Amino acid sequence: MPRSKIAGIGMYVPEKVFTNNDLLKYMDTSDEWIQERTGIKERRYAHRTEETTTTMGVAAAKIAIERAGITAQDVDFIVFATLCPDYYFPGCGVLVQRELKMKEIGALDVRNQCSGFLYALSVADQFIRSGTYKNILVIGSEKHSFGLDFSTRGRNVSVIFGDGAGAVVLQPTEKNDQGILSTHLHSDGESAEILAMYNPGTHANHWGAKNYASFDDAEISQMFMSHKMIDSAQNFPFMDGPSVFKKAIVKFPEVIMEALHKNGYELSDLNMLIPHQANLRISQFVQQKLKLRDDQVYNNIQKYGNTTAASVPIALCEAWQEGKIKEGNLVCLAAFGSGFTWASALLKW
Ligand code: ACO
Fold first, then answer.
1. Which of 20, 117, 143, 163 is the residue whose CA sits 20 to 30 A from 83?
2. Whole-structure pTM over 0.85, yes or no?
3. Any catalytic annotation for residue 332?
C-alpha cells in the first residue's frame, strides 16, 4: 500500500499587519497583556471585501500545486478545513474547484476547527493509501477578522486570532523512508460549549444547561438569528480560556506521544514538532513537559496570531522555507481545539 507524501506546500497571509497597539483603537487591552498571556505581537487581517477564506485558500493552493509540479487540472480531490466559511453553505471546497477551474472532482469541507487541517490531512491520506486518488489538495484557511467582537466585551478572544491560509498537495510515494507514517484523531464532546460560536445555529436551547446560550420560548419559535442574539454577542465566538488551557496541555503531549510510539520512535528522534499555534504559552508548556529543545519546536504565532485550521500548514510551510525541515527529517504535526478535538500526524519529510 503506498504512503502519501507532501509533494508541495504553500501559504498565504494577508498584507495588512495589525499590531497589539492597533487593537487599542477598538478595545481596552494592552500590548503587555496580550504578549504576556499569548506571546502574540501582531497578526494579519484580510481585506474586508477583496479577500475571503476561499480566496486566501486558493492563493496558498496555487503555490502548493506549483511546488508539487502539477497543474490545478491534475488535482483529483479537495479537502478544505475552516471554521469561517464564505457561506454557511455550500462549503469552500466547491468555491476552490470553481476558482481554479478544476475538473468536476469531489470537494469535501471539514469542520474540526483548530484540528481541522490534521483531520483533513488524515482523510486525504486514507484516499491516497487506498489508491483512490493521486493528487489531493488539502487546505486550511480562516478569515477570523470578519467574525470577531472588537469591543472590550470580546477582548479575551479577539486578540488571539488572525487570518491566513496554508495548503499542501498529497501524492503517493513508494519510498519506505518518506511520507505520512500515521495520523491520530480524537474528540471529547463533553466540552463542546467551552469553545464555540452558538449562533446562528439550529440548537434552539436543546442542549439546555450545558449551553451558555439561553433564549425565551417566543424567540425560539421564530428564529435562526435574532436581535437578542446579536445584542448578547451570541454571533461571536465564546471561549472559557482557562478550561481550554488545562485540557490542551494534557492532550497535546498525549497525542504527540501516541504518534511517536505507534511508529517506534522516541522524543529524541523527533527533528521538528509543529504544534497548532493556539497560544505561545501552551506551546512552551508542551515543550517543557516533553523536554524538547528549542530547535525541535517551531512557533510563529508571534507574527500571525492563532489562525485555527491554517496554523499548522502555515507553520509547516514557514519552517520548511526557513530550512528548518530537511529531507528525511521526522516531523510531528499536532493540534488541539474546539470540540474538543485533537489530532497528530507523524511524517518523514
Ligand atoms: N486585554 C486586557 N485584559 C483582558 C483581556 C485583554 N485582551 N482579556 C481578558 N482580560 C482580563 C479579563 O477581563 C480579566 O479581568 P478581571 O480579572 O478584572 O476580571 C483578566 O484579564 C483575566 O481574565 P482571564 O480570562 O481569567 O484571563 P487568563 O489569565 O485566563 O488569560 C487566556 C486568558 C490568554 C485566553 C488564557 O485563558 C489562555 O491562555 N487560555 C488558553 C486558551 C487559548 O489560548 N485559546 C486559543 C484559542 S483556542 C485553540 O486554539 C485551542
1. 20
2. yes
3. no
CB 186 within 8 A of CB 167: no
- Tens digit of each residue's pLDDT (9 = 90 or more) over 127-138: 999 999 999 999
Query: With 80 as the cut, is the pLDDT of residue 156 above it?
Result: yes
149, 238, 279, 312: residue to mutate for ligand 1 pocket, most atoms within 8 A of CB: 279
Class of domain 179-191+239-348: alpha beta
Where are the CATH 3.40.47.10 domain residues in the chain? 3-173, 179-191+239-348
Chain segment 27-63, per-residue pLDDT in tens: 999 999 999 999 999 999 999 999 999 999 999 999 9
User: Do residues 341 and 191 touch, judged by C-beta distance below 8 A?
Assistant: no
Q: Please, which pLDDT band fits residue 10 given cuts at 50, 70 and 90?
A: very high
| Catalytic hit among 92, 144, 276, 279 | 276
**What is the spatial distance between Cα 349 and Cα 334, in angstroms, rounded to a whole number?**
16
206-239 tens-digit pLDDT: 776 455 566 666 666 666 777 877 888 888 999 9
Nearest to 337 by CA among 315, 301, 316, 312: 312
**Residue 45: helix, strand or coil by DSSP?**
strand
> Could you tell me the end-to-end alpha-carbon distance of the chain, in angstroms, rounded to an integer?
18
Task: Judge whether 186 counts as a catalytic residue.
Answer: no
Cβ–Cβ < 8 Å for 238, 212:
yes
**Atom 22 (ligand 1): residue with closest C-alpha?**
156
User: What 3-state class would DSSP assign to 1?
Assistant: coil
